[in-house]
């Protein structure tokens, strides 16, 4: 049984984790990354199937992936800005068209929109980016595909055969990984955006066909950029509870 005194440390650890969106280029020592992965590997899963796999990109592979993803992001953005003609060209060439396993661009349910908007606006406000400054918004969004400068990107794949439950298991795994990273002095950002294009990561890694790209995680050391202080807050805990 864990000692009672660790409960407070645990609370402090989980409460102080934040998504990091500006990293130092400092590489992660291999032993440190292995320690974090070993912790993450203790995550529970459906029948202990551990229905997830990781593609971990550092160094030249990381750089090639960032270049490939940014190129697709730029191509797709240009096509969208190019009106009907731009969209037709995107459809004809298919280059830049999302080729991920899951759709990352969808209408948000009405009841979730306010939180999504508040989070986006809060982030852009902190960065001094105006609501109509599309160029600056584009540049900020693009940073997702440069892994916010992190030296390592982890792509998370789930087994399609376990349906929704592999995604649930991967979520538990990802949070265990992010908390262990935080405890070891590393910073992370889980990124659904990194599931938009699967082609670049499939070209670099041997990924079994049953495994589908669900998200990425940028990992490294946080810079002291103000963006890393962004804390969008949460519902009051009571708001999570359904009334009887
Ligand atoms: C599954 C998942 C996907 C996410 N995708 C992105 C993303 O694509 N880009 C990004 O900047 N943040 C992304 N985030 C980070 C969330 O915006 C962040 O967790 C949320 O705003 C709460 O902030 P916090 O992590 O600092 O507590 C994602 C988080 C999760 C769990």
TrEMBL record:
On whether Hydrolase is a keyword of this UniProt record, the answer is no
Signal peptide span per the entry? none
Which CDD domains does this chain map to? PnbA_NfnB-like (cd02136)
SUPFAM superfamilies in UniProt:
FMN-dependent nitroreductase-like
- Annotated Nitroreductase domain ranges read 14-221
UniProt superkingdom: Bacteria
For this protein, the record's InterPro entries field holds:
Nitroreductase (IPR029479), Nitroreductase-like (IPR000415), Nitroreductase/BluB (IPR050627)
Task: Recite the UniProt keywords alphabetically.
Answer: Flavoprotein, FMN, Oxidoreductase
Question: Which GO molecular function annotations are given, in alphabetical order?
Answer: oxidoreductase activity
The protein's name is: Nitrobenzoate reductase
Source organism of the structure: Rhodoferax saidenbachensis
Organism lineage reads as: Bacteria, Pseudomonadati, Pseudomonadota, Betaproteobacteria, Burkholderiales
């Amino acid at each position: 049984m864990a000692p009672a005194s660790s409960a407070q440390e645990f609370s402090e650890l989980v409460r102080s984790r934040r998504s990091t969106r500006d990293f130092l280029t400092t590489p992660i020592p291999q032993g440190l990354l292995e320690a974090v992965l070993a912790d993450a590997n203790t995550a529970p899963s459906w029948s202990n199937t551990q229905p997830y796999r990781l593609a971990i990109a550092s160094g030249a592979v990381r750089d090639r992936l960032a270049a490939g993803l940014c190129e697709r992001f730029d191509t797709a953005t240009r096509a969208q800005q190019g009106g009907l003609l731009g969209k037709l060209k995107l459809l004809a060439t298919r280059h830049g068209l999302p080729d991920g396993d899951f759709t990352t661009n969808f209408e948000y349910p009405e009841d979730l929109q306010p939180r999504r908007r508040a989070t986006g606006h809060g982030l852009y406000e902190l960065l001094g980016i105006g609501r109509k400054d599309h160029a600056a918004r584009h540049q900020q969004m693009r940073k997702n595909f440069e892994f916010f400068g992190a030296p390592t990107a982890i792509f998370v794949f789930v087994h399609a055969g376990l349906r929704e439950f592999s995604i649930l298991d991967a979520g538990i795994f990802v949070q265990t990984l992010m908390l262990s990273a935080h405890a070891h002095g590393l910073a992370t950002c889980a990124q659904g955006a990194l599931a938009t294009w699967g082609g670049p990561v499939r070209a670099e890694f041997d990924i079994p066909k049953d495994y589908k790209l669900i998200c990425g995680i940028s990992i490294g050391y946080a810079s002291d950029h103000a963006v890393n202080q962004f804390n969008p807050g949460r519902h009051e805990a009571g708001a999570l509870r359904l009334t009887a």
